[in-house]
Amino acid sequence: MSELLIAKIARRAACPDTRIDMEVSRIKSVPVLGKADAEASEQALGFSVPELLKLVYQRVRNGGFGPGYGLMGLLPTRTGESPVLAAERRRWE
Length: 93
What we know:
Elements: H1 2-14, H2 35-45, H3 51-59, H4 85-92
């Protein structure tokens, strides 16, 4: 079940016309998140990410796709990338 869902998400995320729901003029190609980075992000966040969501970040890409303007990444993967949850969490405290 989760493999089929991840494959469908990956197809949608790969197409610029369906990657996000909102119109955004600049969408960067965001790489997947490595397993070690996913674990580091959970430490930075202070809580565990649901397993299915973690698989999406690891197999599809680290944010930049999905509903609205797209999901935030868990950790930055390069300079200038869109906001990431690990950094935003600090603002919530």
